[in-house]
Amino acid sequence: MDTGAILLIVLTVLAAALVVGVGYLAFSRYSEVSHGFPCAYRADASSSWDRGLLCYKSGRLDHFGRGGPFREPLHHWQRVALNFGIARSMEADELPWLPAPVLAVPCEYAGDRFELALGLEHYTALRAWLESVPPGWNANVA
């Protein structure tokens, strides 16, 4: 085999690896969190806000951070143990990446306290999801 053939094989393998890597990145980035909505998270009032996404499923709320190619939720909160406090409005320039008007919501989960900041329409949807009856709770009611 001459060096030209070896170079061609190496370049073909590298191109294939690049295509697979880009495909995996696109799939992992958009498959799980494509139906999420923007939020900000902080552990307590003295912390700074961290940008992220919230995604709710039937029994769980997932918080994803800013991301990367291998995104895993930073936090999982089960619906039955998650409690929201009274939301307060914030200045829109504090968190410019969130759609105005912005609400800060104190939350409690299994004794841990934290805050979420959301746009008004996302807060309304999330509050309705949290307060509605989860699927299957009334399944055996006659």
Structure, described:
- With 142 residues, the protein is α+β, with helices and mostly antiparallel strands.
- It folds into 2 domains: 31 residues; 97 residues, PH-domain like (Roll), CATH 2.30.29.30.
- It has 2 helices and 8 strands, in the order αββββββββα.
- Strands 1, 2, 3, 4, 5, 6, 7 and 8 form an 8-stranded antiparallel sheet that branches.
- β1 and β2 form a beta hairpin.
- It is elongated.
- The termini are far apart.
- The mean pLDDT is 83.
What's the quick description here?
With 142 residues, the protein is an alpha+beta fold.
SS element count, helices: 2
**Number of individual domains:** 2
Helix content: 25-40%
Q: What is the CATH fold-level name of the largest domain?
A: PH-domain like
Order of helices and strands: HEEEEEEEEH
What distance lies between the first and last C-alpha atoms, to the nearest angstrom?
78 Å
**In one word, what is the shape?**
elongated
The radius of gyration computed from the alpha-carbon positions, rounded to a whole number of angstroms, is: 21 Å
Major sheet attributes = 8 strands, antiparallel
| Total number of strands | 8
Q: List the uncertain runs.
A: none
- Which range does the strand content fall in? 25-35%
Kindly state the mean pLDDT as a whole number?
83
CATH architectural category of the largest domain: Roll
Secondary-structure-based class equals alpha+beta
Query: Quick one: CATH superfamily of the largest domain?
Result: Pleckstrin-homology domain (PH domain)/Phosphotyrosine-binding domain (PTB)
CATH class assignment of the largest domain: Mainly Beta
